[in-house]
User: What shape does this take?
Amino acid sequence: MTLRVGVLISGRGSNLQALIEACAKPDYPAEIVLVISNEPKAMGLIRAQGASLVTETIEHQQFEDRRTFDNSLTASLEKAGVDLVCLAGFMRLLTAEFVNRWQDRIINIHPSLLPAFKGLNVHERVIASGVRFSGCTVHFVRADMDAGPVIIQSAVPVHPEDKPKDLAARVLISEHESLRLAVRMIAEGRVRVENDIVKISGVTSPANGLINPSRLN
Ligand code: GRF
Assistant: This one.
């Protein structure tokens, strides 16, 4: 049985695209059954339609408050029989009610090594801070923004000459890989949450860390 994934987007949809390509492989244990965008012009909708996926636009402006908007999301996700909700560049804050409804069945991808650099304009702030590494985090969603049990993280170096767009591009590659892997691990039933910490079975971990700068010229 494949895991039925509902993807929520607001824009470009490159993470959605990564998942679409993964799901097209015969041995991938998940399928995308619904893509919802709150932005009618999201490029991700075109990607989804190109892959013949079911799409829906639910515009937040049409609702009187967050609660009624979120209820509409839940109604569509339930109707589609979604097992796992995947926030992939979805730019709306969700109510605690919605998050609790999907507890441990909703994941988010964020372009930093959480809990560092929550929120927006991440790469600008990472570069300004002088840290040597950044990366991405896939985590289960909790009511607080960019918080919740970490499933997978991937580190990339920050180079001295990086502009935000350079770092964003490097992190984005790691996002696509991490999201595909996280959904696979969840679909394979390897991921569980215990006391708000994620435990994963049947995986290996790297023996050593990374170092940056790595050497002198
Ligand atoms: C990604 O950087 C993701 O981590 C963040 O929003 C961006 C969405 O990119 N939450 P895309 O729409 O998947 O291309």
Q: What stands out?
A: Residues 183 and 203 are 14 Å apart (CA to CA). The chain has two domains: 1-102, 108-203. The mean pLDDT is 97.
